[in-house]
Design goal:
Distance between the termini: 65 Å
Number of domains: 3
Radius of gyration: 56 Å
Number of helices: 7
Number of strands: 15
Largest sheet: 6 strands, antiparallel, barrel
Shape: rod-shaped
Length: 435
């Protein structure tokens, strides 16, 4: 008994340690099992995807084409809206523009001169677009029209002066005839008084008939002269009326001629203005500019002096002011747990593992039906919007369309125990269906 009792302490000590060990194991497994059964974990569906932009690339073309003079950008360069991309040789267009500008200035000056003639102004009032120009062609056009305005004005004034002078001459003749007629009328009155006295003396026998006959003959002659004077006065009045009508017709003809010339000039002016607008636009478009700020991709023009055809794509610009979208391919087995509006985490796998970018996102749309890859495998297309605020400005600048990405789409919460038991439950469910 004494020997057995001496061995008991070691055996009891071993049992105590084993009991403590088992208790630790049981407590550990109990805690782990409780955590696995109760603690919620995020459930997610993994979907590979590609970075795209919501606003499509801007393909840059030129409607007329031409000879490349300068290439201002290179592949991968960033440009601001309005920056020059490619300059074309505009020599021919500039020469045509110069010619049309000269014609336009000349027609503007001619129109201003005709307007002044129509309104019978003392001087030509030129429009502001012409007065504001100091080039030689505009000054020459105005000088030429000033000279023509004065010459035509003087010629018209001369024609009118001739007619007005004719009227004055006729009026002077009428005044002279009227004076002679009045003198004859006074003389006739004197003859009438003298004849009356002679007839009384003849009746009394103091004078003969010869003197009376002479006076009557002179009186008749004066009456004839007065009648002739009245006729000449009437003729002159008619010629005055005709001359005044000529003046009116002269003015009407001049105004009609001015109106016809003005209509022709304005038609030509409209035509030249339209042609000038077109050529100005061509010269402006000779410098191809960026419509938006963005990144240069797919630069096709590399040779100065080369010829580009009308409508040929020259380069693409990926806009900066765009939302990044990841087009993710969701497996059909996960589609029941994915829906629009759920959160997602996006890993941009194009970078090295140490610098892999992770961004937050949201599923915006999900295709209504499954699609097929080139190998025939099915998938559902999910468009996931990248929350750019979750990335730094530097990281946002590193993202370009076409980059691969992995999208973890949050599908809910499950415990670790549910994760572990799910395969077994699926096997049992299939087994029961087969039975």
């Amino acid at each position: 008994m004494t020997g057995a009792g001496a061995a008991n302490p070691d055996w009891v000590s071993d049992r105590r340690y084993r009991r403590i060990g088992w208790m630790i194991v049981l407590v550990t497994f109990g805690l782990f099992g409780g955590w696995a059964a109760l603690a919620p974990l995020d459930s997610a569906a993994l979907a590979p995807g590609v970075v795209t932009v919501e606003e499509a690339r801007k393909t840059i073309q030129h409607p007329e084409g031409g000879i490349v003079q300068t290439i201002h950008v290179s592949e991968g360069a960033r440009v601001a809206a309005g920056d020059p991309l490619i300059s074309l040789d505009a020599t021919q267009w500039q020469a045509e523009r110069s010619l049309l500008r000269g014609q336009y200035a000349s027609l503007l000056a001619e129109e201003a001169r005709l307007q002044a003639e129509r309104q019978q102004l003392e001087r030509i009032v030129y429009p502001e677009p012409l007065r504001g120009r100091e080039d030689r062609r505009a000054q020459s056009a105005m000088t030429s029209q000033e000279a023509l305005f004065q010459a035509r004005r003087d010629a018209h004034a001369g024609e009118r002066a001739v007619l007005e002078q004719r009227i004055e001459q006729l009026q002077a003749q009428i005044a002279g005839i009227e004076a002679v007629r009045e003198s004859n009328l006074s003389l006739l009155q004197s003859f009438d008084r003298e004849l009356a006295d002679l007839r009384r003396l003849q009746e009394q026998g103091y004078t003969g008939k010869q003197r009376i006959t002479e006076l009557e003959r002179e009186r008749s002659q004066l009456i004839g002269e007065n009648a002739e004077a009245l006729s000449r006065m009437s003729g002159n009045q008619i010629r005055i009326g005709e001359t005044r009508l000529e003046i009116i017709q002269l003015e009407r003809h001049r105004q009609s001629q001015i109106a016809d010339e003005l209509e022709t000039v304005q038609a030509r002016l409209y035509d030249v203005e339209e042609r000038l607008r077109v050529i100005e636009d061509r010269v402006e478009r000779a410098v191809i500019r960026a419509p938006v700020a963005g990144l240069i991709l797919g630069l096709q023009v590399t040779t100065v002096g080369g010829v580009i055809s009308a409508g040929t794509p020259l380069l693409d610009i990926v806009p900066d002011s765009r939302r990044l979208i990841v087009e993710a391919e969701v497996s059909p087995v996960d589609i029941d747990r994915v829906q629009a509006g759920v959160d997602a985490r996006i890993r941009f796998t194009a970078f090295k593992a140490a610098t892999t970018l992770v961004a937050e996102g949201t599923v915006e749309t999900l295709s209504a039906d499954r699609l097929l890859r080139e190998d025939g495998s099915p998938y559902y297309l999910a468009r996931v919007a990248v929350e750019l605020e979750s990335l730094s400005a530097h990281d946002r600048g590193r993202l370009v369309p076409g980059m691969p990405a992995d999208v973890l789409i949050t599908t809910g919460e499950r415990t670790l125990l549910q994760y572990l038991l799910q395969p077994a439950r699926n096997v049992m469910a299939r087994a029961l269906i087969e039975d």
